UniProtKB/TrEMBL annotation:
GO BP annotation list: antiviral innate immune response; G1/S transition of mitotic cell cycle; negative regulation of innate immune response; negative regulation of proteasomal ubiquitin-dependent protein catabolic process; proteasome-mediated ubiquitin-dependent protein catabolic process; protein K33-linked deubiquitination; protein K48-linked ubiquitination
Xref: CDD domains: Peptidase_C19H
Gene (name only): USP38
Full protein name: Ubiquitin specific peptidase 38
Cellular component per GO, a single term: cytosol
């Protein structure tokens, strides 16, 4: 039969006749043949397949071999043995070279025919070795593609174990040697198809054996980073990029950019060749990897590489915009390269001559895809022309060409440029995958939560945003001092100048933590703020005393330094000094005076005292009863004399206050007290302390309480402040011991603010003790936060000075039912007037949660600059003067309400920031106002108001203001060196940041959804239930994070 077939295929008979005879030969395969006849037939068909003169002969060989192998399988198994296959692979077949693709095709088909035979296992073992040898010989793309087909169908032939790693590495090297010299489209398509088959094989191996991936990628980098001038790796390596998991970008890029063994020359070559990969059609994610490597190099400050590569490749990348298949990736890389190259217009000016032709070409084709592309391109061009203005001769033709496309706003341009600068890339290398709001967008630095330290973080950010206080702290000369103020200065300096997204305030936390605060446990931010200000105040006083004992030259130097410091601090306040000693910085910034009168209702005798305060604690007004009895944890006398919620700073003659750790700052919602600096005179309450019990006392108050019509009106901070200042009747268990009567008597107590602070701190007393259930509860009532707050200040003055007060003509009776009359103490004949001092809201600390024992703190804040305060004060004073007279005539309420809406509307467009531990985002005053209405558990707790001054120490008459950048003083060398050192350290930490961020994201105390807007989840939500500390928290989750 083999002779018949051989004669037939070589005869000159017509082709149809040959096909009929071949069909008969195929059918005869069902008949029995001896072994010799079978081998002869197998030998003939093999020769026809491998050496056939025409396609017909090769086709006949395949058909007959398949038929006879199916019906005579043992004979074919004996013929297609290990020795025969090995000879084909190593020696070829007769005149056919061993590297001919026909041999691989023949072996591929032979494996299919004996797949069910036991001997196939021996062939698999043989091929595992042979395919490794083949790829080491750098086969051509066609042969490599056929090998990939074989290994894809028979994965048993792929080397195993360590040999699989070697095989993948050698296959990568083989791809790097691929070349296509043809320019014909058909041949180019075939070449791309061959490369795709090989890259798909590698992908399958990586999936099956993940251990092979990293060595393969190392081999890729070794190829593209080679500086051997005789070897140019193939752009076909780009086909592998789409198979690398994107999750590995951060780890791989950090590893590359921080590896000391990778030289700058090698990195430059690698980056240039990766940019060349943009030319590879159908390759995905090449642009993502290129941008990630650019950002990685910027993060480690390898700017020389970035400059060289950008100037070398920017025109090539721009030219890729002409080709639709690679245009999206090319545009992404071009945008990043241009926007990050911000130190010189050189790169942009290299492509400027080519822009007009590209725009005209795409405008003329009219395709929707072209229009969308041009919109993105023109936005990029506008950003670059904005950044490098001053070249009208170059830009006019471009402006004419793109005039029909939208131009981005100046704010958007600034944001885009700020995000893309090389110096901002250290913030977030992974931003090529997902961009989060970081310092690059807000310009602010967050504070890392060290374990339930949100109470400290929220307070520190509020103080930092108190502009005048921050500037005074930064301008202090504290070199050689290890005080708490020095640590605060250090912290403020880092918040202002670090490159970190978030800073860890470990040193300051350990130094400022009250001794009774258990680490990693929830605490009250108000109590912490009070302790912090007291410590700073007392410390400055002690340092002054210590400096007085220094001798000769050291004494002179110290006194000069302190005079400079205090002179700088003094310019920020217009409050006159009322004490003999010089005020501390805390007194100048936060200190006010409060005068308390007590009038005996029996003999009408009065006693009074004046106390300093740093903040006021505002209780909530009772909702119904005018004469209301309520419980609290200490008596009124104790509250006035260093009890709960007081931060008492002793006078220089006394010992520092020792805080009681058991007196946590949870108090009844109806306690009316103030926090003080300075000790009250002993004689004032000398009788009360022996006659009034300490626990469970009741105060009967007789105050005109602002009512809620229908229970619907939201109380405002002004209402709570008026309630705080309203007279109080001491009766029943709280009778006043009158020295004149020598007995307990009913009395009237009245408090008046006589000196206003530069920064007014208000605490809303939201935590009350439930006597019935013996638990502390939170008052969740919403409170309206006025942008402008008018603080009534009672001052003794001459009649001639009344006309100097711009608000003296305001009818104060309209504000709170003849409150002005009530504020005047009985039995006094002093000539006094009430001045409404305007304050502007600076920051709000919010507590998120339903109880005092759980939840989270975060803060809203904004920069209230001196210029803004002065301008708004002048503007408001004029408006109030007019509004005041109109209000008086028409019987309206507080005249500030007339202009309040106007000021609020202006503030809507200004920048407010939301500080939520390490996260800082933009927000608006509207979000501040509506936080409780949208998220009922999130309530304002501590408010910081800035006084609006008519004259301010930070105005142009400040001799040092010319040296201040953005209003802040220049840092001293010691601070600047520390920040520079930390910034360098921060760059070295980038390798570990990806893992740290993943850990932080999983355990972060407070995080937003990726969109970051507070219209979705409450900003204070944290813990497993996302409820800000309430409801279904378990024991661990109830802690404050």
């Amino acid at each position: 039969m083999d002779k018949i077939l051989e004669g037939l295929v070589s005869s000159s008979h017509p082709l149809p006749l040959k096909r009929v005879i071949v069909r008969k030969v195929v059918e005869s395969a069902e008949h029995w043949l001896d072994k010799a006849q079978c081998e002869a037939m197998f030998d003939l068909t093999t020769r026809l397949i491998l050496e056939g003169q025409d396609p017909f002969q090769r086709q006949v060989g395949h058909q007959v071999l398949e038929a006879y192998a199916r019906y005579h399988r043992p004979e074919f198994e004996s013929f297609f043995n290990k020795t025969f296959v090995l000879s084909l692979l190593q020696q070829g077949y007769h005149s056919l070279d061993r590297k001919d693709v026909a041999i691989l095709d023949y072996i591929h088909n032979g494996l299919k025919l004996i797949m069910s035979c036991p001997s196939v296992l021996d062939l698999f073992s043989l091929l595992q070795v042979e395919v490794l040898r083949m790829v080491c010989e750098r086969p051509e793309p066609q042969l490599c593609a056929r090998l990939s087909d074989l290994l894809t169908d028979f994965v048993q032939c792929i080397p195993k174990g360590k040999l699989s790693i070697t095989f993948c590495q050698q296959l990568v090297r083989t791809i790097s040697h691929f070349q296509c010299v043809s320019t014909q489209e058909r041949e180019l398509r075939e070449y791309v198809s061959q490369v795709t088959k090989v890259s798909n094989l590698l992908q399958n191996i990586w999936k099956a054996e993940p251990a092979t991936l990293l060595p393969s990628l190392q081999e890729v980098f070794a190829s593209i980073s080679s500086t051997d001038a005789s070897f140019e790796p193939s752009v076909a390596l780009a086909s592998l990029v789409q198979h690398i998991p994107l999750q590995m970008i951060t780890v791989l890029i950090r590893s590359l950019t921080t590896d000391p063994n990778v030289k700058d020359a090698s990195m430059t070559q690698a980056l240039c060749r990766m940019i060349d990969w943009l030319s590879w059609p159908l390759a995905q994610h090449v642009d993502t990897w290129v941008i990630a490597l650019l950002k990685g190099l910027a993060a480690v400050q390898k700017f020389t590489i970035l400059i060289d590569v950008t100037l070398l490749k920017i025109e090539l990348v721009f030219n890729r915009l002409w080709f639709p298949l690679v245009r999206p990736g090319a545009l992404a890389v071009l945008s990043h390269m241009l926007l990050s190259f911000q130190h010189s217009p050189e790169a942009f000016h290299l492509i400027v001559p080519h822009v007009v032709n590209l725009v005209h070409s795409f405008k003329s084709d009219g395709l929707p895809s072209s229009t969308a592309f041009l919109v993105q391109l023109t936005e990029l061009i506008h950003c670059m022309m904005y950044h490098y203005s001053g070249f009208p001769d170059l830009y006019e033709p471009i402006l004419e060409a793109i005039k029909d496309f939208p131009k981005p706003s100046e704010e958007k341009i600034k944001l885009i440029l700020n995000q893309s600068a090389w110096t901002s890339q250290s913030n977030s290398l992974a931003s090529c995958l997902s961009r989060l709001s970081g310092k690059s967008e807000t310009g602010k630095t967050g504070l890392i939560n060290l374990g339930n330290t949100c109470y400290m973080n929220s307070v520190i950010q509020a103080l930092f945003m108190a502009t005048d206080f921050r500037r005074q702290v930064l301008s202090l000369n504290l070199n050689g001092c290890n005080s708490l103020m020095k640590k605060l200065q250090h912290l403020f300096a880092f918040l202002a100048h670090t490159q970190r997204e978030a800073y860890a305030p470990r040193i300051f936390f350990e130094a400022s933590r009250p001794p009774w605060f258990t680490p990693r446990s929830q605490q009250d931010c108000s109590e912490y703020l009070r302790f912090l200000l007291d410590r700073l105040h007392e410390e400055e006083k002690i340092l002054r005393v210590q400096s007085s004992y220094k001798t000769s030259e050291i004494l002179e130097c110290s006194e000069t330094s302190l005079q400079e410091v205090t002179s700088k601090a003094a310019v920020l306040t217009e409050t006159p000094r009322t004490s003999d000693g010089e005020k501390t910085l805390i007194e100048k910034m936060f200190g006010g005076k409060l005068r308390t009168h007590i009038c005996c209702l029996n003999c009408r005798s009065t006693s009074q005292k004046v106390e300093a305060f740093t903040d006021l604690s505002l209780a909530f007004c009772p909702s119904s009863l005018e004469n209301m009895s309520f419980q609290h944890t200490t008596s009124s006398s104790n509250a006035q004399d260093g009890g709960l919620m007081q931060a008492t700073v002793p006078s220089p003659s006394e010992e520092p206050v020792v805080y009681n750790p058991t007196t946590a700052a949870f108090i009844c919602d109806s306690v009316v007290n103030e926090r003080t600096i300075g000790s009250p005179p002993d004689e004032f309450y000398s009788s009360e302390n022996t006659s009034v019990p300490n626990e469970s006392n009741k105060i009967l108050v007789n105050k005109d309480v602002p009512q809620k019509p229908g229970g619907e009106t939201t109380p405002s901070v002004t209402d709570l402040l008026n309630y705080f200042l309203a007279p109080e009747i001491l009766t029943g268990d709280n009778q006043y011991y009158c020295g004149n009567c020598a007995s307990l008597q009913n009395a009237e107590k009245t408090m008046q603010i006589t000196e206003e602070p530069e920064y007014l701190i208000l605490t809303l007393l939201r935590f009350s003790y439930d006597q019935k259930y013996h638990v502390r509860r939170k008052i969740l009532d919403n409170v309206s936060l006025p942008l402008v707050l008018e603080l009534p200040v009672k001052r003794t003055t001459s009649f001639s000075s009344l006309s100097e007060s711009w608000s003296v003509d305001v009818d104060f009776t309209d504000i709170s039912e003849n409150l002005a009359k009530k504020l005047k103490p009985s039995g006094t004949d002093e000539a006094s007037c009430t001045k409404l001092v305007p304050y502007l809201l600076s920051s709000v600390v919010v507590h998120s949660g339903v109880s005092s024992e759980s939840g989270h703190y975060y803060s809203y804040a904004r920069n209230v600059t001196s210029t803004e305060s002065s301008y708004q004060m002048c503007h408001q004073s004029e408006a109030l003067a007019l509004a005041s007279s109109q209000s008086h005539l028409l019987g309206r309420e507080n005249p500030s309400a007339i202009i309040e809406q106007d000021l609020e509307n202006k503030e809507m467009s200004k920048e407010w920031f939301l500080f939520n531990d390490s996260r800082v985002t933009f927000t608006s005053f509207q979000s501040v106002q509506k936080i409780t209405s949208r998220f009922p558990k999130d309530t304002a707790y501590v408010l910081l108001y800035k006084k609006q001054n008519s004259t301010n120490g930070l105005s142009g008459n400040n001799p040092t203001s010319g040296l201040w950048i953005n209003g802040d003083p220049p840092l001293q060398k010691e601070l600047m060196d520390a920040i520079t050192k930390d910034n360098k350290l921060y760059l070295q930490e980038q390798e570990l940041n990806a893992r740290a961020r993943a850990l932080q994201a999983a355990s972060a105390s407070c995080s937003f959804r990726p969109n970051g807007f507070d219209d979705n989840d409450p900003p204070g939500s944290c813990g497993p239930t996302g409820g800000g500390g309430g409801g279904g928290f378990n024991t661990v989750g109830r802690l404050v994070f």
